[in-house]
Structures are given as C-alpha cells and as structure tokens.
Amino acid sequence: MNIRKMTEEELAAAFADGSHAALEELVNRCKADVFGFLLGLTDSRDTAEDLFQETFIKYVRNPGAYRPVQKFRAWLFTVARNTALDYFRREKNRTSLGILETPAEEEYDSEGAVVLGIKDRDSDRPDLMFENACLADRINSAIASLPQEQREIFYLRHYSGLSFKEISTLLGEPVGTVLSRMSRTAAVLREKLEEK
Fold this sequence. Notes:
Blueprint: H1 8-16, H2 20-42, H3 45-61, H4 72-96, H5 126-144, H6 148-159, H7 164-171, H8 175-195
Helix pairs in contact: 1-2, 2-3, 2-4, 2-6, 3-4, 4-7, 6-8, 7-8
C-alpha cells in the first residue's frame, strides 16, 4: 500500500511493525498542527520545537502505548499536552529558583506575543503586507493575553483538527464544558480585538 494513502492509524500500526517510513510520514503529517498547538501554549518557537521532539520521542520509545481504539491524532495531542504540562511544572520550579531563561527577543512583538507572520499569498503589495502585520500583531496580543486555560482550548480547537467530543476526552471534561469554554474564549477574543 502507498504510504501516503494510509490513514494515521494505519501508519501507526506500520511503525509498530518496524516501518521507519511510516514514522516519517506521521511526523510530516502531524508536525504543523502539534507544533502550532505547542507554540500557542508556550509562546516560544524553541520550546515548542523541543516539546514536539519530546512528544515524538515518547512515541518512538513506546509505540505500543498507542491503542488503535482511538484516533492517532487525538492520542498524540494528549501526549503533547501532557508533555507541555510537565514542561510548565519544571519551569515553575526553575522560576522559583530564579533560573528561568529568557526567550529570544526577535520571536516576540512589543507585548511579548509570538509573531505569527500572517501574509497575503496573492500579493507582495507593501500596504497589504503592513495591514497583515498589524492584524497579526493584534491577534497575537489578544491570544497572548488569554488565561492559560482559554489559550489551550483555542489552540486545541484551531490546530488539532479534533472534534469537540475528542477535545473533551483529551481534557477529561464534559463536551458541554468544552463548548462553553470555547464560546467564552471566542467572546473574549472578539472583545479584545474590537477594543483595539
């Protein structure tokens, strides 16, 4: 079977049987979404990259931990989320000891938000590029100002490709709670963007 036509679940089974090409395809398919989710949680490209690698290292070391009764992507986001939570616990301890590293300044705007770099693909017009940069700055600032819980639900919904039911399973919360939290998050973001 053509590896590019396989589902993520089939690729996971192939990797468990020893196919390194299947692992490479899984990494290629999942990297943008999982990395985007981790970037949103950590506000650091370097940290998100490290956590992405740590997520896949956990999988590579124990491919049997994934059980095909659930979607591979939902399972992988659970691993990524737990990896991020472990990171936050470690950083909290490091911060209390006064040894937290400062992230590179060029990755952040003036308010400390990660710059996403929204660009109009159909145009290189300077006026549109400026508008897009301003819009990206406003969106980044609004998202960065959200509490951790709201940022997490926002990034899970917009990067994971998971349904609300799958997100509720991942978070261990009822679907109604997840829907309500996402609705509140969207309302807060709308207000913040309208203010500016």
